[in-house]
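Replying to the earlier thread about multi-chain prediction with a worked example.

Input:
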Amino acid sequence: MDTGASDPTAFHNQPLHPNQLPDLQQLEWQPLSPRYSQLAFWLNNATTLLLLLVTLAYWLQPFWQPSEANHQLLLGLAGLLIAGSLWVTLYCRLAFPRKRYALREHDLSFRSGLLFEKSVTQPILRIQHIELKRGPIERKAGLATLQVFSAGGALHTFEIPGLPLMEAKKIRQFILQHKDNRQHD
Amino acid sequence: MTEPSANPVRPEAQLQSLTHWQRVSPIALLYFAFRLFKGVFGNLAYLAPALLVFYQGIKREPGYFALGLLLLMTALLLIALLRYLAFRFRVHGDTVEIRSGVLRKTQLNLPFSRIQNVRLLQPLYYRPSGHLCLQLDTAGSRQQEARLAALPNALATELQQAIYATQRQQGASTENTSTVVPASEPDTTVGHSVATDQPEEQLLCQRSVGDLVLYGISNNRLLLALGLAAPFYNRITELVSELLRRLGLDVAHWFNPEQQSWFWLGLAVLALTLMIMLLITLFSIAASVLSYYGFRLTRSEKRYIRRSGLFTRHEISMRPSRLQWLQLQQDWLDKVFGRCNLHYEQVQSTPMAAAQGHASQGKIMVPSLPPAQAAALMTEAMPGQNSAGITFSGVNWRFLLPSVLLFWLPALAFSQWALQPDDALLANLLLPVFVLLLGLLLLRWRRFGYAMDEQYFYLRRGVIGVDYYCLPLYKLQQLSRQQHWLMRRAGLMHLQLVFASGSLTVPYMTAQDADKIANTLLYHTQSSGKGWM
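Result:
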């Protein structure tokens, strides 16, 4: 690993033409599986519905009668929660289908966000290890989340959610092979 | 090319005594006990307020309290003894093996090649007997870190040399360079104190006590501690005034506006503030001298080595390749003195460790340098860097908008609306504070600057003090570009650069520059073929 880096005195001065560099503006963005945003939408709806049902159950039940002030407070809180949940549902409905990822020879990129757009680029050379994460719902839907760890720390874990399992496996293979190639150079 | 045969034989012959399971020197018992006491009583400090509540009880039954304390001490000593007895280690081949734990036994196998750093510590009480504490750092988690609490001086240095020699051999096999250690090296270090230079080391920098005093004044960390202690102010002042009253001084009387004129009150407050500031500064100077006394930064062929400490001598070493970025830090008092501090930032072991401040123990920082010396050190570590001469580009004025619109203006409007009718004086007094805040914000905006040349990316930031960062382009770990739709319309972007030592963000730069910098960084990272550590 430390062939060149351990000798910082080595002076190098490669010629560089800024216009010829690979440009992040020209990435070919790929959509995630459409099932991913659908799933998120239904899950969000289910959460909202659950909150509504719990509130309704509380409203109708005869067993527990708190004081009038507390009753109002609880209902207000429930209302806020439901409104928040609806807002999240709406946001995800609009934002999730816009999530994109892009693959180049030497890096992975992921773009997300509706009003505030963020695009992260992870050079493959700097990847420490890779994980495919699949929760129970993702397993049912045949989806997977690809997690990539670099030395940048846990806060900067690069993640592409909502990939079809085959595609995720392919990307993982691509990264692993890339690493192998570099090491045998 | 005698190296392969000569080098391994020597240390192995002398390290023979470590190949069977053994305990560390008995003096380590002191070390174990100290650590345990520190652990227990250090946490007890949080319980101090509770102890105050029990104070009455303690006063009533001092005998039982003393007995309880005695029992506690005995128990702790016993635990320390058990821990000492349970701690056994050996050096088997090229691996350090450690068995420890009284109830929960653990065994740790640490191959030499996995050891990133070997730190030598010498607490004061080890000095008469000439022992050293050897700390082995790994890149992994904190549980993987190992300490051999007390080894005779000669043995510890030998083990350190043996570990480095093994790593050098492994390095040499890939690097194909002849990094031959003088064969006499282990012998020359035997019997010397830690601070002795090895022959191949080149002295880069030394700090005098005068420099450390300046550092102590300008880097007043105790002010922070004072802020953290705020919840206890009331209790502390009560205690102090109680104490003073017993001495026959009625302090409360001085600060009572009904009994004193405004002039005297002001004078008393001023005197008190000055006295507290003086005390804090003195403490800070003492702390600075304590930890940096005899500061020497040396460079051997493969390592930077920092040694310092008045009582406990610390030795920290770092491979130059592990250096992620250089940070030149100049607080406002540093500016007054015309000094700056140079941080050699390396890989952050874990975010938790960094948050708890443990990271600073493994970091190299050169305190209170004159700018010329700092520039020389920076060039030594990063040849070709031009942080002093390069022209920085500023960030867009829209940087100010979120803070002004979302915090400054609403806070100003609210405070005036709420206070002006009832307490016009207070509301008017707040106005200069808001002007000051705006001024600081403007300063922060003006300070932001970025630049890039063929090898390095430079960042300047700060409010009154300034921080300069110098980052080698190819050590990038990850980058992210962010913008919201208003920024997109203005052609602006935030650029966040993630390195192994942390992340830096340049806010509100032109999208054109952000893209250019991002593309160049990625290109260098991917094409240089150089590792980041």
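The two ends of chain B are 27 Å apart (CA to CA).

Feel free to reuse this layout for your own posts.
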